[in-house]
UniProtKB/TrEMBL annotation:
It comes from Chitinophaga ginsengisegetis. Residues 68-224 form the Glycosyl transferase family domain. It catalyses: [GlcNAc-(1->4)-Mur2Ac(oyl-L-Ala-gamma-D-Glu-L-Lys-D-Ala-D-Ala)](n)-di-trans,octa-cis-undecaprenyl diphosphate + beta-D-GlcNAc-(1->4)-Mur2Ac(oyl-L-Ala-gamma-D-Glu-L-Lys-D-Ala-D-Ala)-di-trans,octa-cis-undecaprenyl diphosphate = [GlcNAc-(1->4)-Mur2Ac(oyl-L-Ala-gamma-D-Glu-L-Lys-D-Ala-D-Ala)](n+1)-di-trans,octa-cis-undecaprenyl diphosphate + di-trans,octa-cis-undecaprenyl diphosphate + H(+). Pfam families: BiPBP_C (PF06832), Transgly (PF00912), Transpeptidase (PF00905). Keywords: Carboxypeptidase, Glycosyltransferase, Hydrolase, Multifunctional enzyme, Protease, Transferase. GO terms for biological process: peptidoglycan biosynthetic process; proteolysis. This is peptidoglycan glycosyltransferase. Its EC number is 2.4.99.28. In the C-terminal section; belongs to the transpeptidase family. Residues 308-565 form the Penicillin-binding protein transpeptidase domain. NCBIfam families: PBP_1c.
Length: 798
């Protein structure tokens, strides 16, 4: 009998143990892994954690993401007002429950509740009807939450999710909406006013029921005084503070970066908070925005409506200011929602310094190598300089400083546009994603599209490479080539390590930046460098075809600043030129930044050689004026000066002679700087140039064809010419241009063997040949003759 009783007891005990285990397991797993799943606002903060901007959550609520930090004032206020034994109970306060039951029974209505802060957190997370059953569930889940989270976290969960009236949820949003500043900066009176709101957010909504709100706030302040949390003076002063009025707008800095963060976040499909601490500096962001706005007000009279500014830190690539556009959302015609920093636009001439550095890097040119600047047509492509003029020949550095188009195209032809396209992609320009043939030689003049973001990133990578030369002991780190970053504390992964070669060597980059300092600043004299207060800046402007985009990019060892001006819809405007619209903004932004020194000369990456002073090439034996300069290491392979010739003169030095007409004993020999006739024609009008003396008359008969002094400048051999219709509807004309070393010589012009005229000194002829192929023939009065074929295109046929 006893055995049966014991057996039954054991069976019952097992059932009790099993039931208990089930209950405990259910209790353990009853708390959701994530209590709150409501959508949150996207929040943008600067590098110090101060709010820059925020967007309303998808459900229409101002609800900031969870923040573990809770101001001490709020913690003291909410505990005193809602749950004074919060730190002593395990989620349920029996004393508060007993008091609530007693008060409600006496009043025969709900006078007070017995919910603890922990239970309120559970209620806020579940959003269920308020009844006895739900109260019991909240009590169970509250005890479980007490096991799972610290008191600090429970307070933080409450602060992030409690309702504060209207569509404002959470302490952070409430502080900004009602007081216009972060919660940490609120006073005792302001914090007390917010602390009483979650208890009855509809009843005491700011702007209504002012007396009720005032009484509740003051009662809480009195309670804090009785608890010795605040002294009497603080209490009295806090009671005198005004109550919050209508909700205030949140800060609206960097709205386009906020949109970029939202897009990036949604593409990543992450569970991370919708809050980002950026690398932006709030003061710089605000001031850069104000500068862009000021110039917008000046430019809008000309129909130029949009502008963008980007400021990067060179060392880290961090974004310090991001003005994506003029922000006037109430005016849809301005299209201020377009983020110009990320928009693909024609870069104009802003790629020219990269080509200059690349050619120095490969030894194809030296810093001041003469580049032809003459009428040019390459496979039907005829670039023009901005001023429609020609220099004949111009030093490469000066061509860059003056942003001449024809020398740039000729340089790209020599470097090859396929290589340049590949280099730009390696430097971080991802938007040039079509084959190189799609862009051709026009790539150097803005024939492709890129973004202000990638352009500034590329220049920052170049500057970073240069400033790291000493640190890396003359080696290169390919990890220095990386895009800009706007997230704080993001480290770019190391993939390459140090190597002896870089995409561009330091010497080439240094020379490119040197050339970029020679550009005259808008509104300043050419000798601005002489003023010690002027910040030394390497800068480049760009203007796209049709005056649609104005660019300016500036570089110092510490900063890169990029500016774009134009219309978001691509409409061109007269006067929309980079140097006159974007450059003034660039220098105003640089005035906001700390001045810094200049890049150290990377002598370990340079070699000293002799160069011809007149041509900029490596000095040859005939070069009579030479300079010893440091050049990029590859410069030792650069070409030797082709322009100095040994000239034979008679005794007087006035005539050139040959052995066929003059005794060698009567000759004098002299080195002479001689440009090709097409270059000489323009060069001599802008530079000191000593022309070759003419041949002695009795020597002319002995000259061969290779000595011909005449050249047809335009059109070039095999040119295909399209002649546009003038504004009055009449067919346009083609200006044929030739040059002769002897200005006084007369040239006779023939078109298809028909004489059409003669010229002296200025050899130009305006013609209107019919569509089709033609031959132009020039004969000088000495019988020298040149012939060239060309084709006039038929517009209808083309």
């Amino acid at each position: 009998m006893k055995f049966d009783t014991l057996k039954q007891w054991c069976i019952k005990k097992k059932w009790w143990l099993a039931a208990t285990a089930v209950v405990l397991i259910a209790y353990y797993f009853c708390l959701p892994k994530q209590l709150f799943t409501s959508p949150t606002s996207y929040v943008l903060e600067d590098s110090n954690g101060d709010l820059l901007n925020a967007s309303i959550a998808p459900d229409g609520q101002w609800r900031f993401p969870y923040n573990a930090h809770v101001p001490d004032k709020f913690e003291k206020c909410i505990v005193a007002y809602e749950d004074k034994r919060f730190y002593y109970h395990w989620g349920i306060d029996p004393i508060a429950i007993g008091r609530a039951v007693n008060q409600n029974a006496r009043g025969r209505k709900v006078v007070s509740g017995g919910s603890t802060l922990t239970m309120q957190v559970i209620r806020l997370s579940r959003n269920q009807p308020r009844n006895i059953w739900q109260k019991m569930m909240e009590a169970v889940l509250a005890t479980r939450l007490e096991f799972a989270a610290s008191k600090k976290k429970i307070i933080a969960l409450y602060a992030a999710n409690a309702p504060f009236g209207g569509n404002v949820v959470g302490l952070e949003a409430a502080a900004w909406r009602y007081y216009g500043r972060k919660a940490d900066l609120l006073s005792w009176g302001e914090m007390a006013a917010l602390a009483v709101l979650p208890n009855s957010p509809a009843l005491v909504h700011p702007g209504r029921n002012r007396v009720t709100l005032l009484n509740k706030r003051n009662q809480l302040l009195n309670k804090l005084y009785r608890q010795h949390t605040i002294d009497s003076i603080t209490c009295q002063l806090a009671k005198m503070e005004p109550l919050p009025d209508q909700p205030l707008p949140l800060p609206q800095e960097a709205p386009h970066l906020l949109d970029l963060f939202r897009r990036d976040y949604q593409q990543q499909k992450t569970d991370e908070p919708t809050r980002i601490k950026t690398t932006l500096q709030a003061d710089l962001q605000h001031n850069a925005t104000a500068i862009a706005e000021r110039y917008h007000n000046a430019y809008k009279a000309n129909g130029i409506n949009n502008a963008a500014v980007l400021v990067l830190d060179v060392e880290t690539g961090n974004t310090l200011a991001y003005v994506g556009n003029i922000y006037h959302p109430s005016d849809p015609e301005l299209e201020s929602h377009v983020d110009i920093v990320q928009a693909r636009r024609s870069p104009g001439s802003t790629l020219k310094p990269i080509l200059y550095a690349a050619m120095l890097n490969d030894g194809l040119i030296l810093p001041n190598t003469l580049i032809p600047d003459i009428p040019t047509q390459i496979a039907g492509y005829s670039p023009q300089n901005f001023d429609l003029g020609y220099d004949g020949a111009v030093p490469a550095s000066r061509a860059l400083a003056r942003s001449l188009n024809i020398p740039a195209v000729r340089m790209l032809q020599q470097y090859r546009y396929e290589r340049f396209h590949s280099l730009l992609q390696k430097m971080g320009i991802t938007t040039l994603n079509k084959p190189a043939d799609h862009y051709g030689l026009s790539l150097i003049l803005g024939g492709g599209e890129t973004t202000l973001w990638e352009m500034c990133g590329m220049y920052a990578s170049m500057a970073r490479t240069l400033i790291h030369m000493d640190q890396y002991k003359g080696k290169y780190d390919m990890d220095d080539i990386h895009p800009p970053n706007y997230r704080l504390n993001i480290q770019h992964p190391s993939k390459y390590g140090l190597s002896k070669d870089g995409l561009l060597d330091a010497g080439s980059i240094w020379y490119a930046f040197q050339a970029m300092t020679e550009v005259m600043r808008p509104g300043e004299e050419l000798l601005w460098q002489q003023f010690s207060s002027s910040q030394r800046i390497a800068w480049k402007t760009g203007t796209s075809f049709g005056f649609r985009d104005g660019w300016a990019i500036g570089v110092t060892p510490q900063y890169v600043v990029g500016v774009w001006v134009g219309n978001a819809d691509g409409e061109g405007r007269p006067g929309l030129i980079g140097v006159s619209t974007a450059a003034p903004i660039l220098f105003d932004v640089f005035r906001l930044l700390h001045t810094s020194g200049w890049f150290s000369t990377p002598y370990q990456q340079l070699k000293k050689i002799e160069v011809c002073r007149k041509s900029g090439f490596r000095a040859g034996e005939l070069c009579d004026e030479k300079d010893s300069i440091y050049v990029p290491a590859a410069g030792i392979r650069a070409g030797v000066c082709p322009y100095h010739q040994l000239v034979h003169l008679d005794r007087t030095g006035q005539w050139r002679v040959t052995e066929a007409c003059e005794s060698p004993s009567l000759m004098q020999h002299k080195s002479w700087f001689v440009l090709p006739p097409s270059q000489e024609y323009y060069y001599r009008s802008k530079n000191y140039y000593q022309q070759l003396p003419p041949y002695k008359p009795d020597c002319l008969a002995s000259l061969g064809q290779d000595k011909a002094p005449m050249e047809l400048i335009y059109p070039r051999p095999g040119a295909r010419i399209f002649v546009p219709v003038e504004i009055d509807g009449k067919p346009g004309q083609t200006i044929f241009t030739a040059t002769h070393r002897n200005n006084a010589t007369k040239i006779f012009w023939h078109l298809d063997n028909n004489f059409i005229g003669a010229t002296t000194e200025f050899h130009q002829m305006a013609l209107h040949p019919a569509a089709g192929k033609h031959i132009i023939t020039l004969v000088d009065e000495n019988g020298e003759r040149i012939e060239q074929s060309f084709e006039i295109l038929d517009k209808e046929r083309e």
